[in-house]
From TrEMBL, chain A:
MF terms (GO), sorted A to Z: ATP binding; ATP hydrolysis activity; polyubiquitin modification-dependent protein binding
Coiled coil: none
Species annotation: Fundulus heteroclitus
Pfam families: AAA (PF00004), AAA_lid_3 (PF17862)
Record-given protein name: AFG2 AAA ATPase homolog B
Gene3D superfamilies for this protein: 1.10.8.60, P-loop containing nucleotide triphosphate hydrolases (3.40.50.300)
Keyword ATP-binding: yes
From TrEMBL, chain B:
Stretches assigned to coiled coil: none
Xref: PANTHER family: AFG2-INTERACTING RIBOSOME MATURATION FACTOR, SIMILAR TO HYPOTHETICAL PROTEIN FLJ20508
Protein name (database record): AFG2 interacting ribosome maturation factor
Domain of life: Eukaryota
GO terms for cellular component: cytoplasm; nucleus
Cited InterPro entries: CA109-like (IPR029159)
Amino acid sequence: MQPLRLLSVEPSDRGSQRCRLGPALMSALGLRLGSPLLVSVPGGSCLCAAWPRADLAEGFLQVDLKCVTPSLIPGLPAPLTLDPGQLSPAPCSKLRGVKVTVVVQSPDFKQHTSPGLVHELVRDMLRGVYVHKGYVVNLEDFKTDIRYVAIDDIGPDSASAGVITSKTGVEITEIQTVQHYRGLLQDQPTAPLGGLEEVRASLREILQLPLLYPHTLTSLGVSCPRGVLLVGPPGVGKTLLVRKVVAEVEAGLVVVRGPEVVGSRPGESEETLRAVFQQARSAAESGACVLFLDELDSLFPRRSGSSAPENRLVAQLLTLMDGMSRGDRFLVVGATNRPDSLDPALRRPGRFDREVIIGAPTPLQRRAILSALCERTPVCPAVNVAELARMTAGYVGADLSALCREAAMHALRESAKGSGQQAVEMKHFQEALKLVGPSCLRGSLGRTELCPVPWEHIGGLEDVKTKLRQSIEWPMRYPEAFVRLGLRRPRGVLLYGPPGCAKTTLVKAAAASSRCAFLSVSGADLYSPYVGDSEKALAQLFREARACAPCLLFLDEIDSLVGSRSNDGAPNGVQARLLSVLLNEMDGVGLKTVERRGGEKVLQAEGAERSRTDVELDFQEVCNKDVMVVAATNRPSCIDSALLRPGRLDHIIYVPPPDLQARLAILKVCTKSMPVDSHVCLEELAAKTELYSGADLANLCKEAALLALLEENMEAESIQHSHFLRSISKMNPSLTTQQISSYLIPSQ
Amino acid sequence: MSNGTCVKTRERVPAEGAQMSLQGALRRSFVALHSQRAVWRSVLEECDPLMESLGNLGEQMRALSRVRVSDTPLRVFPELQERLQVQLLQAADLLLQRLRSRMSHLQSVRDAISNQVSAVLQLYEDAADSLDLAAVTQRCSVIPSLADMLAWLQDAERFYKQQFLQRKTLLQTLRLDDLSQLESVFKRWKILESPDSEQEITDALCRLSFFMESHR
């Protein structure tokens, strides 16, 4: 039989429950006029009365959606072709009784209309309608406040469908508002949420307690909390958390979006806000309800002296929140990422009672988020989520979600090329890691792209390398050993030494090998013509670095950046203020509350096995919470002594000018890519280059190569020993003994 | 005009008979619908002035609630405001009572139509075994098909049911203490009229005029 095209219903048939189809199909299905017919469409089904089309054409179907599954209330998906097999006659007997839930438009109607009247109206409206258990009867065509009737149960007879006659008893179990009913229907799967168990539990508690124990709370004289403020950087899942919890406890949700509230006329915004509270209040009558104010800071900023329109809006919110009586059983949840710009009057008990801080996720939380995200994607079992969590320092939930999406896209591209592999593998994640960076570092002034330098590219300086590894790499690699010995990761490392001795290159190598976030800042980033701007920028830099800890923060040429207080410079200069910020950030009293991350440790169930990586992640959290500052200077005497004490820059490492062995090693590294003649004796060169720094040696090799090109007219094949010797004779070492000895004095 | 000219002679005599009797019943129902419609309209016309005065009373109550009698020369009359209020409420009550009696008229119209329709449907149900779909969808220039006529009848019944329930809801949910509701009552009453649906019934009756006159 030919497929049926589904057309929209004729206006005259609206509300008639008719399903218009061709007469041939009707007789093929054995249907009479008005016989009950069950039409299954993708996403739901619909019970209707068969009727021949007025034009008697075959191949078309017009269904009036009077009695449908709840999923079809919004309407049918637009262009649709059905198979005749999707229509089936549904025998309907006369029902003796039916239990229904009535859904009304306005809470006002629900409040003021007597149950008897509702019962009478519903009975009249339902007469002659075919109903099916679990379906919803749409009564919108009556244009009264009664919008839907949900059929909960149909009488004692076992059939699932039937027709309501004047003798059918209609029992109304509940009257709900449309808003509440829609809220109940909208429990479609939301994005997974991981790592926020504690916050979730506390939110749930606040929502559920007044519902579960209303009498206990009133007898104790305890008023339930009315407001919760969620604070956290963008992308950590504040909005998602609220939606998830609301869906879990089956509460109603009233969302306020900023632009919807703000109106152009004076007083309009306040009016809308009052209406929103009224809406929440009426929704709360039929169960728990949450009024969610997203991006609170943009709506209710700190009140200023002038009579800005925001002031009135803030005042309105204050009075509304104060005016919430004990009977109002709804919770106001606000979310913001800039709590400091909120009006302080909002942040007191009685208004936003609780403040929940959701920080950037810790490694354990990241692992939870990643496992939640990977639940629905086919991930190769070889993918180590714990390892992935370790690599994604500074990523928030939104970043991780983007990362998983990108990895899945890579896998998809690969399978499209014909490898046939469907699972997402570790290499896809690594590709994705290159594309998706942590969002807290986006636009950060310290973010630097650096090409990784392996340790081997730095000749000599073995001592220094070991010390750097000890303080940077070890805490990352062996956190359990550090915890076992009660060691703490150093707060800072100062590299000092004569110029050109590879201090900066050493830091690059350390950053590349430690695989943690790397921020570098110079004076150009910090200095600004405005008073106070530089300090703010430095503090902001530290805040960002802490958000994506473990993190290396590199301050090159620290002497010029912050200077010293003991020098005869102006005491209130920018440098002195920057220095004080730096001292505070490195070893201050504590962090701001807004920056709290993670939560208390969750108690493990007895006997629960924990894998080694879990334990390692745990140690990671203990050990690598901080930002490590690496500073470099060639004028250590100009650094303020307060910076040099343990607890700030604990490790002070002298990077000496290269000795004979080191020079040889450096020459070897420098000439690696050069076609050096076999007669060249690097040992002799090393011996002749006393007082040369690493940079000098690199320059020497370059000069020798240029000389070779000059002499042999662009056709040089190799660099001779004589070229090196002549270059040495032309050059002077950049270091002097006097200079070197001056470095040695302060360190002793 | 005779039916024989357009209905093909069939072998199955019971089918023919059932069709004839169903057509007869339909004809009677449509004639009844025609007359009930006139009754409905006349009752509605009676309601209109009543609703208007109800809205008027609402406005008077609003005015009364705004004025402060103690500031006017009328303050010498004791308890004037309360008395006026009571009088207005009494008048409103009287109006509502009269409206309710009109509503019962409307209900009887609706019930009459419903009964007609359900009787015809029952007749079809009884004869359905002998009437196949070809028979119920068969039509000619003067006699619409049985399916169409039944659909029109049902549509008309639905229209009156909807109209009645809407008006009933409006009246029953009216609260005299909600002044803004009371003031706008006439406007809301008028909005309920749906000329389009009524026009459809008129159209159907026009299409049926030959059929209805054929066997008078």
